[in-house]
Each structure stands twice: as structure tokens, then as C-alpha cells.
Inverse folding.
């Protein structure tokens, strides 16, 4: 839009000046809360409102990202994670085709992934201009990560990162109309840790009424054991030789905290388990396990829901470190470890081997863990919402890079229709099909606009939309044989077995 004046929008805290890019207006680095550092009780505490500013704040560049350790060299080959220094990391970005009140366009709020320890809204794959191009105001946010966002201390409230996300949604409620958005048509969407966060927001009382629709991609509602998170904090404290309190951690050097966090969590992975940070039931912002709250019925029953996974999620967790070959060599030992990781009996392992006789140990372990962590919890949630607008899909297109298959995070370049960029090609390789991006992105746009992405809602036939295995099509019950194995398993500890799966 050559010659067009840079757009200016007023927010409750001051005016911001954006830029026109790719035919839409973009505003970056807008603070939705005060910096969680500096003087006062901000570190490890709930977010405070931002200080108002005079004049017009320039919003051309991404704001600071939350403190985080870098990816290992093996993962950095595949995943981009820009780090932008600065204290004012509780910020967000807005892409809009009509920057002004009156447009009342649907809104999609994006929560990034990264195991609650990495990631940011500045990852290039998350460029929201394609949603704005197609009539959806796109908002992406930063929130506190790792020990800063999910450490558990005796002298500070839990779940600071989740509280940040709620504060960002409150900002959207109060401010997005001025950017052309409709605060009554907000979709919260996330991938991986962002999807886990979205699941928690569905069950968080303080988030009720802040959004109308939700998307969970490759992450199911879950909470971590409080003792597990406490152990992470205590191990970090022991390395730093400080008390395991928020006060002591707030006084510590930020870079030293990140190094200690990286060292303590270096052996953690979704497949292998291990120490890690996560959401916890806190009796306040998250009063109960969100999965159980959603499965018990009633919670978020009026929210339209779309959930999906990739066919080979586990390959991103195993391929970069060369673990596929190691797990295959371990064979029966690895399968025994998967049994312990998934709290299942031998009959489940035997069933998977019978259903997939050509699969090696690594593939069997990977699919077991993927089903345990993602697919079965999503299936439980869908089954608990009879008559509700619930849609399920699978992304099945395999990367052109060796060994990755349809791995975790591969679908993001298709969701955002950003697959022609170098960052998306880190996972997809060359030649990602544009027609698949059109189909995948189009489904998300339709869901944000209407709550119906374009295939049948979940019912007793278990419809799953398949993207990337031929033309998009709907399969009915494609994983029911695997689900039946878990339903008949009687060895899993109480509370870990899937319930309310439809037996047919």
C-alpha cells in the first residue's frame, strides 16, 4: 500500500503506530502487561497492567521475548527460536485487514509451543498476515516460560505463564475492537505447549467468556505433578546454591537461572519423560485437572472446539538426537520403558505389535507415547461433548527431509500458509504442496469465522479429517483399534486409564 499513512490505533494504555505489510496492517510488540522484572513484586508474580504511555508508541518491531535457553544444536537445525533481549516481554502482535472500529472481524489468538520453556510470537512461521489477508484478525502473544512462568515456590502464586495468557485475552476483550476485531468472536489456538495452555484456559474460571472457540493442535489438556515441578526448582536451587524460593530466584542472575534450568532439564523429552516444568492445579486460576474438568462435562460446553495431531508426532522428538536407531536397538527394553511411561499393560504393547507388525521398536514406542499423551485424551474430550461442535483432524503429509515423516510442528507452515519461507522449510524441506496449505489454512479460517471447519462434527462414528494423505478426506474411526486396546487394559493405575470412550 505504497504511500498509505502508517496506521495508528488507540488502546486503553496509549496509541500505537503499526505498518502496512503484505496488504494488511501489523502492530508488533504491544505491551499487554507490565514487565515482569525490575522493582516491586513482579518477578514470579501475577501480571500487572502496563503503565500508560504518552504520545504514540511505535509498533513496527517484535517486542522482547521471554527469557529462555536456546535449543540444542540438533533441534536448532529444524526449529527457529529468535531471542530478543529486554524486560518488556509480556507483549503481543496484531495483524488486521481493517485497523479501525466497526469491522467486527473474527479474531484468532495464537499461543506458541516450545514445551513451556522455549518459543515466542516472533517465530517467522507464525506470521499472521495470511489470516488477516483472509479476513481474520490474528493476535500472537508472548508469555513467561520455564522457571519464570511455571516454577513452583512457597512464596509466590503458581502458573504465572497461564496468568499472562489470561491477561492477554483480557487485553483482546478490551482492545481488539479498535483493531477491527470482534471481541465476541475470539478463537484461542495453540500448538504443543500452546495447545496444553489452551486446554487449561478452557477449564480456567477466570478465562470463561474471553473466547468462543478453541483449537488444540498436538497438545492435550494436562497438568504436571506438583512434586515433580518442585523437584525441578530444588535441583536448580542446589546448582545455584540459593534457597528454593521466589525471593531468592528473583535476586539471582537471569542468565545463571537459564543455564541451571537447561542443565536440570537436559534429559527431558515427551517420549522419555524426565524432569520438566508444567501447569499445576493451584486451587486458584486452575482449580482442577483441566482434562478431568472437560471430560466430566459441563466445562466449556458452549465453546466450539477443534483438535488435531500429526501422524508421526514422535519423530521430531526422536530423529534430531539419533534416538530412532538407539531405541530400535534396545527393542524389548525400550518397549518395557514405554509401558512404564504410558502406565499400560503388556496386552497394550502386544496389541500395537499385532496391529503394526512391520513397525520397529522406535515406531511402536513413539506411537504408544503419542496416543497416551495426545490422541487418547483428545478422544476422551471429544466423546464427552455429545451434540457439541467438536471437530477432529490428522495431518499426514510427510516431510521431504529424511526420517521426519509427518512430525510434530510440521503442520504449522500449512496452518499459517507460510510454507514458502526458509523457517518452514527447516522441517518440510523443499516442495511443500500449496494445495495442502490452502486446505489446512482454509479450515482454520472457516473455524474462526463460523465454528465449522468443513467436515462432520464428532459423533459415535468418530469422523477424523485427514490432511496430506491424498486429497483431504474424512475417515471414520481410523484409530479405534488402538483405542480399544487401552479401553480393555486393566493394569493402568486409577486416573490414568482413558474413560468414556465409545465401544462399538
Amino acid at each position: 500500500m505504497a504511500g498509505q499513512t502508517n496506521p495508528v490505533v488507540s488502546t486503553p494504555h496509549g496509541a500505537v503506530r503499526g505498518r502496512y505489510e503484505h496488504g494488511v496492517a501489523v502492530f508488533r510488540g504491544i505491551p499487554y502487561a507490565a514487565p515482569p522484572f525490575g522493582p516491586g513484586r513482579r518477578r514470579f508474580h501475577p501480571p500487572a497492567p502496563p503503565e500508560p504511555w504518552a504520545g504514540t508508541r511505535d509498533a513496527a518491531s517484535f517486542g522482547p521475548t521471554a527469557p529462555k535457553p536456546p535449543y540444542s544444536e540438533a533441534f536448532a537445525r529444524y526449529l527457529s527460536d529468535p531471542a530478543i533481549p529486554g524486560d518488556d516481554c509480556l507483549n503481543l502482535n496484531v495483524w488486521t485487514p481493517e485497523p479501525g472500529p466497526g469491522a467486527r472481524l473474527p479474531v484468532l489468538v495464537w499461543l506458541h509451543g516450545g514445551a513451556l520453556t522455549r518459543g515466542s510470537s516472533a517465530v517467522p512461521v507464525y506470521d499472521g498476515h495470511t489470516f488477516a489477508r483472509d479476513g481474520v484478525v490474528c493476535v500472537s502473544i508472548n508469555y513467561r516460560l520455564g522457571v519464570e512462568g511455571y516454577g513452583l515456590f512457597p512464596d509466590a502464586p503458581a502458573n504465572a505463564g497461564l496468568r499472562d495468557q489470561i491477561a492477554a485475552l483480557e487485553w483482546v476483550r478490551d482492545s481488539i475492537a479498535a483493531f477491527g476485531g470482534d471481541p465476541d468472536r475470539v478463537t484461542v489456538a495453540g500448538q504443543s505447549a500452546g495447545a496444553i495452555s489452551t486446554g487449561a484456559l478452557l477449564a480456567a474460571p477466570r478465562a470463561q467468556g474471553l473466547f468462543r472457540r478453541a483449537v488444540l493442535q498436538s497438545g492435550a489438556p494436562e497438568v504436571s505433578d506438583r512434586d515433580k515441578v518442585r523437584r525441578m526448582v530444588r535441583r536448580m536451587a542446589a546448582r545455584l546454591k540459593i534457597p528454593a524460593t521466589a525471593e531468592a530466584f528473583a535476586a539471582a542472575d537471569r542468565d545463571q537461572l537459564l543455564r541451571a534450568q537447561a542443565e536440570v532439564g537436559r534429559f527431558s523429552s515427551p517420549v522419555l519423560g524426565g524432569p520438566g516444568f508444567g501447569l499445576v492445579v493451584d486451587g486458584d486460576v486452575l482449580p482442577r485437572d483441566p482434562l478431568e474438568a472437560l471430560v466430566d462435562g459441563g466445562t466449556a460446553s458452549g465453546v466450539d472446539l477443534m483438535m488435531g495431531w500429526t501422524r508421526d508426532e514422535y519423530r521430531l522428538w526422536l530423529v534430531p538426537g539419533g534416538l530412532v536407531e538407539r531405541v530400535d536397538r534396545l527393542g524389548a527394553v525400550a518397549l518395557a520403558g514405554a509401558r512404564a511411561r504410558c502406565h499400560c499393560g503388556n496386552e497394550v504393547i502386544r496389541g500395537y505389535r499385532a496391529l503394526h507388525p512391520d513397525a520397529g521398536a522406535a515406531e511402536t514406542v513413539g506411537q504408544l507415547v503419542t496416543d497416551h499423551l495426545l490422541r487418547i485424551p483428545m478422544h476422551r474430550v471429544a466423546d464427552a461433548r455429545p451434540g457439541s461442535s467438536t471437530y477432529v483432524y490428522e495431518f499426514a503429509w510427510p516431510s521431504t527431509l529424511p526420517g521426519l515423516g509427518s512430525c510434530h510442528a510440521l503442520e504449522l507452515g500449512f496452518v499459517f500458509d507460510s510454507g514458502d519461507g526458509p523457517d518452514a522449510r527447516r522441517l518440510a524441506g523443499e516442495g511443500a504442496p500449496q494445495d495442502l496449505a490452502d486446505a489446512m489454512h482454509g479450515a482454520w479460517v472457516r473455524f474462526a469465522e463460523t465454528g465449522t471447519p468443513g467436515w462432520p462434527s464428532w459423533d459415535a462414528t468418530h469422523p477424523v479429517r485427514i490432511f496430506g494423505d491424498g486429497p483431504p478426506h474424512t475417515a471414520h474411526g481410523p484409530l479405534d483399534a488402538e483405542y480399544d486396546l487401552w479401553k480393555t487394559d486393566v493394569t493402568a493405575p486409577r486416573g490414568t486409564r482413558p474413560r468414556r470412550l465409545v465401544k462399538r
Remarks:
- Residues 135 and 313 are 30 Å apart (CA to CA).
